[in-house]
Amino acid sequence: MNKSKSYSQLKNVNFNQSNRLIKARKLTHSTNHNRALILKNFSVNTSTDSIISQITCGPLEKLNYRHHPANPTLEIHFVLSEGARKFYNYCTTTGFVVVDGKRLEVEWANESNTEDTTGSMGVPKYLFNEIVHGSARRVLICLKIVPDKPLNHLSLTDFPNPELHLSKDFDIDLIKHDFSKYGEIVEFGAVISRKLCFSIHFTDIRSAILAKTDLENKDSMMNAKYHDWFFWYGKDPTDKPCYHL
């Protein structure tokens, strides 16, 4: 089976609408609109993915969790300044963004509250091109076909043997070790599939690009190790609309 053909068939994620929106605002990378927000008022025990699950209005370029015992913050950089503006308005006008029973507080990132001032500028042009033309996102989907596992449930006459779903050579700790060298990872998520499938959520789009590029390089150790896997960019969980009542 041709892997490139199979890859296109398995890649069941449509970025066309999101990319059209980003491309329509392609001058964003050269403008001076702020794309960065600081989120506050959450417990130090609150996980990063719990906060991210409440973020809407567009994909993120990167994020940075500051583990301050008294006042933890999460700095998020949207790909588009429009996404940052919409989410800021959504938080400040509705009060609907709640994490662990607390309403998130949001403020614009500036020189007084962050050392990373890149959010006041557009996404670098090279990265912007990867986002628009390569559908690059912070999320990588990883899929592997498990040998001898029946994929057609209609062929099963009774409840499947649990051992059929066991991948004995799958070691999540080893995978974490292999992929953490590309950058900080927010979480590993399960993906519903009849095949062995999971997602890797990086804190930065660049990390996902580095990982995918290395995996596709036939001369790399990662390609040799994961040659029987399929990889593609997944949709950023923040890339969803925010609804105003």
UniProtKB/TrEMBL annotation:
It comes from the Eukaryota. InterPro entries: Nucleotide-bd_a/b_plait_sf, RBD_domain_sf. SUPFAM superfamilies: RNA-binding domain, RBD (SSF54928). GO terms for molecular function: nucleic acid binding. This is Uncharacterized protein. It comes from Hyphopichia burtonii NRRL Y-1933.
